[in-house]
Amino acid sequence: MPLLENLEPAKKIEAPKNFRPSVEFDGTEGTATTPGYKEEPENFDDFLLDAGLDPRSVEVIPPIRTSKWQQREDGEWLTSYKFTLRAKNPEINLPALLAEVKKTRKPKQRLTPSDKALVVAPADWQVGKVGSKGNTQDLINRLYDSFDRIEERAKKGKYDRIIIIDVGDVIEGFTSKANYQQLQSNDLSPMQQVDLAASLLWELIKRLSKYAPVKYGSVASNHCQNRFNGQQVGQVGLDDWGVVIAQQLARLSKEVGLDVEFFVPQPDEEGFVIDVFDDGYHLLGAVHGHQVSRPKLLPDWWTKQAFGNNWASAASILLTGHFHHTCLLEMGTAHHGGPRWWLQASTSDNGSDWYARHSGEVSNNAITCFELHKETAWQGEIYRL
């Protein structure tokens, strides 16, 4: 019987392709999207002239956004440019303009419960590890404190749905880079680690499912990999303790009738993208982060995934863990016109003492959470609970 017979991998979402050349200009301001160029143009005068505009009377306003794609016929890369146009030195009556804005401005829409989702990102619990912040009992106490705070927010938030993403390394394992050290420092066997991690995640699911339907996803990660002599073996996205735990939780939730939908990576991938409201707007991607050696390399990794049109290219928000501290970075423009974000989630572990000795950095424990509003660009507000 296949291990994941009752779990469907997260559906692969292609990056939106909205690179149609166009010009909209009302005499004062507007927007333009150019066709694809093989080489970066010195200016856009010819493009403006072809559109019927005089380059001497309009100006291009930064930022200039770009979109790249590869032609199937000859494999050559093309680049399209999108920018704002403005008439040079327009005569503006400021009092009249302000009055017009007040008159035509749409009233702020009131949000209903169906407009909101709560995203909860457990990361790097490393169940079974003992460090400067305690042992397994200390970890359990710390997580239950976080669960209480998250449940209080879920109770007050009146969410339409709750997304739980296990961002990886939920157990410590015995075969990571410091495998000999783990023989001394761990206080749980691999079997006990998996059992406790599943119990803790089930507790979180049970609590939050009282307030809204839950979507639960688990990525593949380095501490949860199937390893032999320190080397990864087996299928990349399936032979992983975090994914196996998700499988067991899926069976349990079905057995007791909880309204939970589960996601795991495709068999040959380590992360996934889910459509939060099933409307193509908020595309939430998740991957552990061990794909790179340092946090500052993750934005470059994501950019390269986009150029290769791989699974992560569709994400408007990319959620990662692995590096045991919170980090938030705006990365250009998403398909819906709002910001594209990379969010590195907080850790809840008992301390990465080897990293503290090496770097001098010590992270504060928390579970990272944030809200998404339907058809509204996320502005980067997070809660460390």
Q: What does this protein look like?
A:
- The protein is of the alpha/beta class.
- The longest helix is centred in the middle third of the chain and has 22 residues.
- α3 packs parallel to α5 and α5 packs across α6.
- Strands 10-7-6-5-16-17 form a six-stranded mixed sheet, covered by helices on one side. The protein has a five-stranded mixed sheet with strand order 11-12-13-15-14, with no helix packed on it. It has a four-stranded antiparallel sheet with strand order 1-2-4-3, with no helix packed on it.
- The two termini are 39 Å apart.
- It is 25% helix and 24% strand.
- The protein contains eight helices and 17 strands.
- It is elongated and about 75 Å long.
- α7 links the parallel β12 and β13.
